[in-house]
Amino acid sequence: MSKVWFVTGSSRGLGRNFVEAALSRGDKVAATARNPERLDELVAAYGEAMLPLELDVTDKAAVHESVKRAKEHFGRLDIIVNNAGYGLSGAVEELTERELRDQLETNLFGAVWVVQAALPHLREQGGGHIIQISSVAGVSAFPLSGGYCASKWALEGLSESLAQEVAGFGIKVTLVEPGSYATDAIASAVHAPADPLYGGLRESFAAFAKTLDFGDPAAAGRALLKIVDSENPPLRVFFGIQGNQILQQVYTDRLKTWADWQDLALEAHGHTPPAPAV
């Protein structure tokens, strides 16, 4: 049986490929974008299976109205994909308050509004699957990406709690953590005012970025189909090769640090550390 999707940030990048993958196999999609005219080609190709919706996810009332329209149009909602978001580049010291707040409004609060709007419908029908598009930067932090990492780390914690809260209603949650893909994500990122003090770090990070192996967005779209078709989908899954490469070392380092400082952890609780063996 075909599924009904609600996908935010659908006009380009991974979101566009998620929509195309769903439509190409006969599913129906309510696709949102700030500029829905960019979806005209998909409407022409797939007709009534494609419902374009104009939406800025930072507008809470508009989010609820869009979800309601999608449900009324297709009769149900099976897959919710929170993909809308953008990158913010800059050292923590460089970020303006407005830049950081805007980042969180889109990448975090936008996803919250969509989840809150969709949950009553998913509960009523007895199930559904919420896909949260996070990032490798949602589980590992990088220099000059503090604002973006903050938004994705917050999404990770929120979604892990959400998964436990809605499991009893038959609703599944998956955090997709993509690495680098051949989209315009880097080119379209917002850049904080540059401080020359961080010039060397910025050059080093730019050189590192040039070495990355960028994945195929269409392959990510096909992979997402396997996630939504799984009877037991993962809470977290990497898309691309960077995730496992980076996180193996990150978690090894974290576990070692926690173990090295375990005596102090016990001390902070009020326990006396064990005497060293003679």
Number of helices: 9
Number of strands: 9
Radius of gyration (CA) equals: 21 Å
Order of strands in the sheet with most strands: 3-2-1-4-6-7-9
Tally of distinct domains: 2
CATH class of the largest domain, named Alpha Beta
Helical fraction: 40-55%
Largest sheet: 7 strands, parallel
Share of β-strand residues: 5-15%
CATH architecture of the largest domain: 3-Layer(aba) Sandwich
Q: Any idea of the CATH topology of the largest domain?
A: Rossmann fold
Order of helices and strands: EHEHEHEEHEHEEHHEHH
Considering the protein shown, what is the CATH homologous superfamily of the largest domain?
NAD(P)-binding Rossmann-like Domain
Task: State the separation between the terminal residues, measured CA to CA.
Answer: 68 Å
**Low-pLDDT segments, ≥5 res:** none
* Bulk shape: globular
The average pLDDT value, as a whole number, equals 95
User: Structural class, judged by helices and strands?
Assistant: alpha/beta
Describe this structure in words.
It is a single chain. The chain is built from 9 helices and 9 strands. It is of the alpha/beta class. The chain folds into 2 domains: 4-240, Rossmann fold (3-Layer(aba) Sandwich), CATH 3.40.50; 243-278, no CATH class. Helix 1 (13-24) links the parallel strand 1 (4-7) and strand 2 (28-33). Helix 1 packs across helix 7 (217-229), helix 3 runs parallel beside helix 4 (97-125) and helix 4 runs parallel beside helix 5 (146-166). The termini are far apart.
